[in-house]
């Protein structure tokens, strides 16, 4: 990353509260982060620490927050096609085919029908779903549906890509292929990326910087520069050390649980007895 490049995205003293039964929940506190043009930043942190909330604010879906979010120095003003998002759940429309769902990412693009079709075909191929372009979401596996959502987020070639656990539902091999593919896309398009992930290794493999969030309220605990050249070697000593370091940072907080256990964390204890 070029240290003197002006920030493309600026979070300045951002805070977020939700009204909940019995009062207010402080989801984000004093969040400050500058993301340079072309930079890849990953956010890791425990379940419920505010990661998706931050992405929702940046995509412009929620304007009720404290502080300031700037893009290219301008205050954020609703959603915009220069920002693409892949949500934590795939959010496909069940009555639209794979190709039609992906086409939704192009609604604001000035393309003729041939260019539009070409672009859709290109992104269907990118996520390896050539044989399923006419299929409907209920005919896909969870991982395939997530790949459609990734194609929809990328198809308009956004300048800023927001990814909320985009590969969480994929098997390990497809996940690694998608990570490689994401790096290749970034290389071609110099896309600025903000990725939320539970997977420390994924963050280390992809990002220029990793932001560790601390929960309740979500605050920045540490920002780690990842100065490893690409392609990164997952088996290397440097990679291993950084992974241990980040895991330590996360598990030092007793409220962090591995993803498989997160679903049960908030259940009453009686549930766990069965
Ligand atoms: N619409 C809402 N109303 C009330 N509280 C909310 C709302 N959305 C999120 N929250 C609360 O804000 C906090 C942060 O939620 P958020 O979804 O951002 O967490 P997260 O870091 O993305 O978690 P996960 O890793 O499980 O996806 C949680 O305590 C959650 O209960
Ligand atoms: Mg989330």
Automatic annotation (TrEMBL):
Family annotation (PROSITE patterns): ABC_TRANSPORTER_1, ABC_TRANSPORTER_2
Domain ABC transporter: start-end pairs: 9-240
Alphabetized UniProt keyword annotations: ATP-binding, Hydrolase, Nucleotide-binding, Transport
EC number from the UniProt entry: 3.6.3.-
Superkingdom of the organism of origin: Bacteria
Pfam families (UniProt xref): ABC_tran
Group of enzyme by EC: hydrolase
Matching Gene3D superfamilies: P-loop containing nucleotide triphosphate hydrolases
Cross-referenced InterPro entries: AAA+_ATPase, ABC_transporter-like_ATP-bd, ABC_transporter-like_CS, ABC_transporter_ATP-bind, P-loop_NTPase
GO molecular function: ATP binding; ATP hydrolysis activity
PANTHER family: ALIPHATIC SULFONATES IMPORT ATP-BINDING PROTEIN SSUB, TAURINE IMPORT ATP-BINDING PROTEIN-RELATED
Entry similarity comment: Belongs to the ABC transporter superfamily.
Protein's name in the database: Aliphatic sulfonates import ATP-binding protein SsuB
